[in-house]
Write a structure and sequence with these properties.
Order of helices and strands: EEEEEEEEEEEEEEEEEEE
Helix content: under 10%
Number of helices: 0
Radius of gyration: 21 Å
Strand content: over 45%
């Protein structure tokens, strides 16, 4: 198909929110969040009819801090870090209905403690339709509301293991041990994603305020483990400083329920299920710059404000995202 670039392309804001669900589940003291993030792009209602968006970003987390650990016990954790590349393509089927396909690849998920555990590979495939339920624009005001419901399908490993050797008087014995949840590229379950978005814009002042809500209903994986359901609410303000440069500042709250397991399973867990689940709030500054009215460069940082966890867990510390978003029309609008 031959694609035409239109000078009339309307860029719907600079990036607003890279909807990061970066720690979809928690684990014990010496393992970080597990599962794949759903991230990137403009957190908006829908695209225009026949409009495409291609978005890719690099996300990195790092922490050498823990919460809820007995200070008398020597903490074996040295650090936990991840490097993740997220990509999506979205298409506006109508002026009210947009569908996106999203996936990501872990370059590494590394836990440094008494030994070093590393995993890498693909995470999940996300199919995510959104529908614009209300959209009103006047010279002095913009209103928009949208909802979405998607499906997250695991395509990576959820039971990656290490192979160990012990030596007995009869010779070496080999056995495998499953890595902690925070090291796995995916949870291994089919999850449902529910999303809501509301925006109030002031065109004359070049200011937008918006809120987003996300809830992920987790399923059970083949090992009989259910990662904790995830919920988040974000409030943001966005200001266009120039025709190309945008700044945003937001507050984000996220809740992660405790993990569950099928008690009839015979295989032992390698983590304490009571040391899962958390509540956190973040301050999220963001910046975006648009080139040629089509290509947007953006970056954001999640600064943890308050963190409450069950048991001992890795604390959120460094979490940033750098990305590119490109929009175009399949035909001249």
């Amino acid at each position: 198909m031959k694609f035409f670039m239109s000078n009339k392309l309307l860029v719907i804001g600079i990036f607003i929110l890279a909807s990061i669900i970066h720690n979809e589940s928690s684990a014990q003291c010496c393992a970080g969040g597990g599962g794949s993030p759903m991230a990137g792009g403009s957190s908006q209602g829908v695209l225009m009819k026949d409009q495409f968006e291609i978005n890719t970003n690099f996300q990195r987390t790092f922490s050498n801090k823990t919460l809820g650990v007995d200070p008398v016990i020597v903490n074996p954790l040295k650090s936990f870090e991840t490097k993740y590349l997220y990509s999506k393509i979205a298409y506006g089927i109508t002026s009210k209905f947009t569908v996106s396909i999203e996936t990501g690849y872990w370059f590494d998920k590394t836990q440094n403690s008494s030994d070093t555990l590393i995993s890498k590979g693909f995470g999940d495939l996300i199919i995510f339709p959104k529908y614009d339920i209300w959209n009103k624009t006047t010279p002095t005001a913009v209103w928009e509301a949208a909802i979405g419901a998607g499906l997250k399908i695991p395509i990576g490993k959820f039971n990656d293991s290490t192979f160990n050797t012990i030596y007995t008087h009869k010779g070496p014995k080999y056995f495998s041990e499953e890595k902690p949840p925070g090291i796995q590229p995916t949870t291994g379950s089919n999850d449902f994603i529910f999303y809501g978005f509301f925006l109030r814009g002031f065109p004359e002042l070049k200011i937008k305020f918006f809120t987003t809500g996300t809830y992920i209903l987790k399923g059970w994986n083949a090992d009989g483990v259910k990662y904790g359901n995830y919920g988040s609410v974000s409030l943001f303000g966005n200001r266009m400083l120039t025709s190309n440069l945008s700044l945003s500042l937001g507050w984000k709250y996220e809740y992660i329920a405790k993990m569950r397991r099928n008690t009839y399973l015979s295989s032992p867990l390698t983590f304490n299920i009571d040391f899962t689940g958390s509540e956190k709030t973040f301050l999220v500054p963001q910046i975006g710059y648009t080139l040629f009215k089509k290509l947007t460069l953006y970056g954001l940082y999640e600064y943890p404000l308050i963190q409450h966890v069950n048991g001992g867990q890795v604390a959120s510390f460094i979490n940033y995202t750098l990305g590119l978003s490109y929009r175009f029309f399949a035909t001249k609008p």
